[in-house]
Amino acid sequence: MIARVDTAVVNGFDGVLVTAECDITKGLPSFNIVGLASKAIAESRERVRSAIVNSGFTFPAKRITINLTPANIAKEGSHLDLAIALSILVASRQLPQHLTDDVLAIGELGLNGELHPVNGVLNFAECGAKTSHHTIIVPAQNANQAALLDDIIVVGTTTFDSVCRHLLNEQIIAPTKYTVVNDTYSPTVTIDDIRGQTMAKRALEIAAAGHHNILFTGPPGSGKTMLAKALPSLLPAMTRSEVLETTKIYALAGNNGQIITTRPFRSPHHTASYVAMVGGGTTIVPGEISLAHNGVLFLDETAEFSKRTLEALRQPLEDRIISISRAGAKATYPANFMLVATMNPCPCGYYGDPEHECECTTQMIQNYQKKLSGPLLDRIDLFVHVARVPRHELTAPTHTDTTDTNNWRQAISHARQTAVSRQGYANAGLTSRQLQKTNSFSPEAKQLLDIASDKLKLSARSYFKVMRVAITIADLEQSDIVKSNHVAEALQFRHQ
After folding, report:
1. How far, in whole angstroms, is CA 147 from its chain's centroid?
2. Is the CATH number 3.40.50.2000 carried by domain 2-167?
3. For residue range 387-398, what is the model confidence (pLDDT) as tens digits?
């Protein structure tokens, strides 16, 4: 008798259905696993053997062969333990085959039969729903995450014995329902904490409303980092689909139980490696670019990052995905993030500062600023120079309520909802074809944009960037028409 129990493995951003086939025949006792199994899966033989015996079942003293099909896909992860153990019980007639026909089994077994949490459960649950499986059995610590999906029944349990009793209807485990996690975000810095910087705060408002990329430049201590850290307090709440997407990415990266309900704010150090930013490794995992999906990627002291790392941002900033190719595997992850970058104008930081003399040579300044290439700068929507805040503004009396932050967040949320209801996503995602066909610009606004484009010699990408920012400004003012003043404000944020 050939027993079959379904499970799944990760293939890039998605799960792929895998079936554990078990054949038990007469012969010298042996236990073999075939089907491009990794070392972690090969070691499951001892875990499965001990878990079956310590759960009160009999481990067959015969020749056992496990085939993980399809055999042409490499399998990684200890989460296949549960499916392998169940297939052995079915093949040895300790469990009826029909009990596992529409079940997806996920879980790592301990020697005493305990089920340990694993990575990527949400991806596996989504795979099970797409392949018409009725139920997925997962470790209890992973159950709430898997229950984000409405299309499959999630059974969370702690031991192998309880799994078998549930299948035999001896001790039914109630399905796990998604428990709403408290998504209240308490930022360390809000827009109310920032003194002065009117233009920089306006740029933050526009960026948050349209999901635009922004670059702050200025001398040390002018507040660039503080402005960036205030951005999360302005971002609108995540939708259910965004929560699902973001949690899938974090599950693949090793966050095996938490549900991501607030927009990510990733701030890698400038010494972060290329692989850490892009993703990859022996088994391809998401990098900072993907972990910032639906949130913010903050690069402090951008010019200190390696040239190779910065240039790697160009493709995801344009396509909103990151494709990773290695000799043995390929993966594509979503990377729809807002880039918030800060940098000094020169190595010493004081070039152009009226209160502090710059010590850098012209060549040093040029080499420093060239670390951000033209194509990368072309993908940034808003450029803001952040000057020093006068002392009298820093020491002026402050108010302690959050009226400004709440008002700004409501306006931003309304503008974002306007864009989503109009085209299904934020304005930063508008394509050049959509912008060419739009009739939302007034004749005066279009004329101003064309004249400015000729005088400033804007590239095609920069031209459309200005259009997107102008549309966002109009949305913030709840205007159906993009007017000349909206275009003028968008133009003042362009890199000169």
Report:
1. 19
2. no
3. 887 766 766 665
